[in-house]
Each structure stands twice: as C-alpha cells, then as structure tokens.
Amino acid sequence: MFSSFSIARLFATSLALACAFAAAPSAAAEPSWPSRPITVVIGYPPGGSVDAVGRAVVETLGKKLEATVVVDNAGGAAGAIGVQKVVNAAPDGYTLILGSSSEFVATRLLNPAQKYDAAKDLAPIGYVGSIPLVLVASRQSGVTSLAQFVDVARKKPGQMSYGTSGIGSMLHFSGELVKKQAGLSIIHIPYRGAGNIGADLAGGAIEFAFLGPGAAKPLVDAGRIVPIAVTSAQRIALMPEVPALGEHPALKGYNLVAWYALMAPRGLTPDTQIQLQRALRETLRDTTVQQKLERVGVVVGRGDEDLSERMANDAIEYQRIVDFAGMKQ
User: Fold this and answer.
1) Residues 73 and 165 placed together within one structural domain of the fold
2) Do 247 and 138 fall within a single domain?
3) Which value, in Å, is the radius of gyration of the alpha carbons in the chain?
4) Does 287 fall in a domain?
5) Residue 25 domain-assigned?
6) Domain extent at residue 151
7) What is the CATH number of the domain that holds 62?
8) Given pLDDT bands bounded at 50, 70 and 90, which one contains residue 192?
C-alpha cells in the first residue's frame, strides 16, 4: 500500500507535468515580435504627399525590423477613415498608421462624426518630418503669379474654386486661411484624397489647389499647372523660384506647414513600442530614405521629437484658424 506521503508526492509530480504540458502550446503561440507582416495604413489613395512619404519609409522600416511591411491605402474623410481603422485594431504592433497633422489633429475640429482623438487613442512611434504646401493654378485660369492670384480672386468673388484632399485637411486649412487673411471668396472643392486633384487642375475642372511639393513638381515641370506660392514662411529648396505666400502684403506673416508621423493603437506594449521607435530612427538616418523624402519636399525629422507636445500645440493653433476663418463642416 502507498503511504499518504507517496500519494501526495505522486499527485504533486503529476500536477507539475500537467502544468508544463499546458504551458508549452501557449508559449509556442506567442513568438517574439514581429513574427508576421506588419501593415502600415495610409489614410489617402495613392498619388498624394502622405502616400509618397509612407512609401519612402516602409521598405527600409521593414528591413530594420526584419519583417515584411505592407501599405494599406484606406482613403476618405481627409485621412480620418484610415486612422479610425488603426484605432480599432489590436494594439499588437502589426497595424500602424503613417499620417499627417490633418488626420491626427485638424480633422477633429471640423468633423463632428469623427470618433477618435489621436492624442488619446494612438501611441506615438515617431515624427517623420514636415512639409509646406504649394498653391498651384490651372493654365486655364490665366493666373501666373501670386499678385495676380490675389487680384483675380478679388475681382471674381465666388467664381473660382480650389481643391483639397478633404474637409479638415491641412490643404483645406491652408486655403481657408488664405481666403480669410486676403479677403478672398473662392469655393472649396474637397476630394477623397490628393491623387486626382492634379489631373482635374491640369484639365481646368478647378482653378486652384493646394498640393504637396512632390505631387505638384512633376506637373509644374511638365508645364501642365502653374506654381503660385508655398505656405511656409520662406521659399523652399525644391522650388526656389516660387515665392512664399507671406511675400504678398495681404498675406504677410502667413506660415502653415503639414507634418508626418508614425503611430500605433493605444495599448501597445512598451517593448514593441521601443523596437518600432528604434527602427524608425534608424530608417530616418538612412541616406536613401532621406533622399526620397527630400525629393518630395519633406524636411526630415529625427524620429524622436515630442509628438504629444506638438499635437497639443497644433490643436490650439488650428482652433485659432478655425475661429479666425470661420471654418465649418
């Protein structure tokens, strides 16, 4: 017969073995990150500045992470649809968003249907860089200079239009600030993204538009559209012959630029967030990536700037623009 001690010992051993076998499949089900492809969502169709920035970054980012990284263009609502998709995703590091100040800060001020607050619902990975926008005109408009743009728009109130990538986008903010500051009346035409604006502008369907320098330059170089001015305080290296909007007396002090960042759903584990941040910093130091970004007009960041502070400050500044320009949904 077995003693009570032997029975207890046998039971303890059996229990330990059972626990070991039960734990083994669980450990196998949780391999180290990343173990499968990572999706970077871009909230615009292909062809715009955000898409260009995203594609300049993702391939090298994948190499740094030793993982496959794919782009998912989820356009609509000035980038907000793409952000919402990521906010709803599992915070496991496999779904990220590369977006702009439009959908991270600005759209919330004009879109009452937007459910997310990027400052609360996303975890910052890193700042990618900033970019001014370019005010461009169609050949059919007859406008070829900044002075002429202001003059013609004043003489033809409500008769011309300008296109943007959507309500609440930085393109929209730029246009409404120009209109308010210079006392102009131009109709806003929101698109689903910036990809089709250039073609419509070249075809004369709209008279003016705000585009990223990378999207505008090929059309400018081909003679299909006319550059009028940039939204930054100074001229830019990519288009040095194009004046800044602030060079016109009616737009003195004008300065508005967009910026780009990589984010993840809130709740990301600290280890995964650190790995992503390190990979982004290394990506932005890559010479080839820097050249790609600079070719589309981006002033490349370091990847470690304080995104939370930038978003908080921009929310205040954008609200001032909304109030000053009387912007509405």
Assistant:
1) no
2) yes
3) 25
4) yes
5) no
6) 134-251
7) 3.40.190.150
8) confident
Q: What is the mean pLDDT of residues 126-148?
A: 96
Q: Which range, of 10-24, 55-69, 211-225, 230-244, averages the lowest pLDDT?
A: 10-24
Q: What is the pLDDT of residues 99-114, one digit of tens each?
A: 999 999 999 999 888 9
Do the domain assignments include residue 4? no
Contact 213, 224 (CB under 8 A): no
Mean pLDDT, range 224-253, rounded to an integer: 96
Residues 196-209: what's their mean pLDDT? 93
What type of residue is 328? K
Q: What is the pLDDT of residues 264-280, one digit of tens each?
A: 999 999 999 999 999 99
CA–CA separation, 280 vs 125, rounded Å?
8
Q: Is residue 94 domain-shared with residue 174, that is, in the same domain?
A: no
24 located within any domain: no
Which of the two residues, 3 and 88, has the higher pLDDT score? 88
Identify whether the C-beta of residue 171 lies closer than 8 Å to the C-beta of residue 165.
yes
Q: Tell whether the model's pLDDT for residue 179 goes beyond 80.
A: yes
**CATH number for position 143:** 3.40.190.10
Give the residue-averaged pLDDT of 9-31. Answer: 49
Q: Which residues pair with 96 in a beta bridge?
A: 40
Instruction: For residues 236 and 203, state if they share a domain.
Output: yes
Out of 221, 251, 281, a domain closes at 251
Q: What single letter denotes the amino acid at residue 11?
A: F
pTM of the model: 0.81
